[in-house]
Amino acid sequence: MLLHIPDVLAAEQVLHCRQKLDQAEWVDGRVTAGRQSARAKDNMQLPEEHPVARELGDLILMALQNSPLFMAAALPLKVFPPLFNRYQEGQSFGTHVDNAVRQVAGTPHRVRTDLSATLFLAAPEEYDGGELSVEDTYGLHNVKLPAGHLILYPASSLHHVRPVTRGARLASFFWIQSMVRDDGQRTLLFDLDMAIQRIGGEAPDHSSVIQLTGVYHNLLRRWADV
């Protein structure tokens, strides 16, 4: 499932992030790349343990908790602390697949990467190119969202970032270990959840709302790994 989640960050939160990131010290983005992706990666990144990365990461994690759409789609068990990258003119990230397991720096904790997320922090008109291209069974999807919006997609997907030809692309990226590992099961639960909410909004006293809610939770109980 490839899902656009709008307005994860409000405009003032995006501005706060931009001000902090503009003053931070960036390093070669290959510091967090695996062996395969390091050959394809050309960007700048904020070090994982940088105080600004931690501060803004906490802000994003709080915003995710307040996003019903994200919570319904991801069913998060663990979220890898958000990272931050910048692509300037001529930089790109070739086709790759994300590592299946990520180690949280400075801790013994690991996160299985069921889902990948990119939260855009630069407005589309600020740069040319830089689209996130994600491959799935329906073809290639090019994604370039407004600042504060997020794209969520299976971490098993082949994807790349197209070369930036003007300006700078700024984003946060991270991974989610879901309570439901299987993407197909997670998509079914999301679709069912959305249908229940629509019926509940149109006919809150309809007996089907309770029945379908029971089906949802029984499926979640069957499939969840917590």
Structural summary, described in words:
By secondary structure, the protein is an alpha+beta fold. It is 33% helix and 31% strand. Helix 1 runs antiparallel to helix 3 and helix 5 packs antiparallel against helix 6. The protein starts with a strand and ends with a helix.
Write the layout of secondary structure elements.
Layout lengths: L2 E3 L5 H12 L4 E2 L6 H4 L2 E2 L1 E2 L5 H15 L2 H7 L1 E4 L3 E5 L4 E5 L4 E3 L6 E3 L2 E6 L6 E3 L2 E5 L2 E5 L6 E5 L4 E3 L2 E4 L1 E10 L4 H20 L4 H17 L3
Instruction: List low-pLDDT spans.
Output: none
Distance between the termini: 21 Å
Major beta-sheet overview: 8 strands, antiparallel
Number of beta strands: 17
Secondary-structure element pattern, one letter each: EHEHEEHHEEEEEEEEEEEEEHH
Strand % is: 25-35%
Gyration radius, in Å: 18 Å
Mean of the pLDDT scores?
94
Please state the structural category.
Answer: alpha+beta
Shape: globular
Number of helices, counting only DSSP H or I runs of 4 residues or more: 6
* Helix fraction by DSSP (H/I, runs of at least 4): 25-40%
